[in-house]
Each structure stands twice: as structure tokens, then as C-alpha cells.
Specification:
Distance between the termini: 67 Å
Number of strands: 6
Largest sheet: 6 strands, mixed
Order of helices and strands: HEHEHEHEEHE
Strand content: 5-15%
Low-confidence stretches: 17-39, 180-190
Amino acid sequence: MLRIVAVTVALAAALSLAGCQGTTSAAPTPVQSTDLTSSDGGFAEHAVIGVVLVHEDAALADGLRTGLTDAGFRPDVRVASATGAASSQRTAVAQLVRKGAKALLVHAARPSTLTGVVQTAHDAGVVVVSLGDPLPATGTGGDGVSADYRVPSGADDDDLAAAAVEVVQSLQRGEKPETNPAEGDSTDAE
């Protein structure tokens, strides 16, 4: 009888430990927001990339959707309506974070209204890239949380879309995007 109890306890312990083993994946280590280095490894190919735009960004939405798809990503493009754009964008960012987006490209209607959801995105390890205007720093204690990177507005939507896709490709490889603030079509680290 004692032997049966011992075998049962050993079997239960082995099954418990087997349940604690995490699944392994060939995907690289996820990029950590605000702490991106080349050793982080980027994120898996075909990752969901969230895009949050304002209502007048139809051409930019098309350019980003095409460019990100051609680069092998799965873009989820959300365009805010003309009325209630700030609220719509907050909701879109939160939904994209819950959906598992690895990066967010954001052209904010009112940047100050996104501070809380940008913090949530950072907490989830999502890299936030501001398109056009920078997103304001948020948080308590002066932590300066804002977008991780910024792609300044270029001459046209095609240039902005191309530069944003290049940033996402760098992030996917686990690299910091090239920065050269002297040129209008480059990215700025925020």
C-alpha cells in the first residue's frame, strides 16, 4: 500500500512539473519597448503590426497596409472617424495591444489623449512609433514614457509609409532603427 501511495505521489509530481514547462518557439525574443538593443532579437516574421491613424489619412493607410504586407507583416489598420477621433484612437490602441501587436504606428488626432494607452502598450512590451508629431511623455516620477521612435512627416504619404515600414523591419530584426534627425525622411529616437 505504501508503495502505491509513493508511486502516485511521484507520478503527480512529474505531471505537475511537466505542466510547468513552457512551450518553445523558433521565434526570436520579443522586442522590449523603450529598451531595444540588437541583442533583444526582434519579433517573429508575420507579426501583427497595429496602425492607428486619423480620418484624413486614407492614402497613408493604403500605403502602410501595402508596405507592411509586402514586407511580410500582418497590418491591422484602424482609421479614426472624423467625430470622436481621440476616443476612437484610444480604443484602437487598447484593442491592438490586447490582440498582440508587436509594434504600433500611431498618427494621433490629439497626442495628449493617448498617454494612458501608450503606457499600457509599453507595459505590454509593444514598441510605439509616432508618425508625424511626437507623442507627449507620460507617467509619474518623470519616467518620460512616450513613443519609442518617431517618423517625422515627409514630403508625402508614400515617403512617410516607406520610412515607417523601414522602422518596423529594423525592429523585427531586433535592431534600433537608424536615426538621423538632420534629414526629414529619417526616424528620431524619442
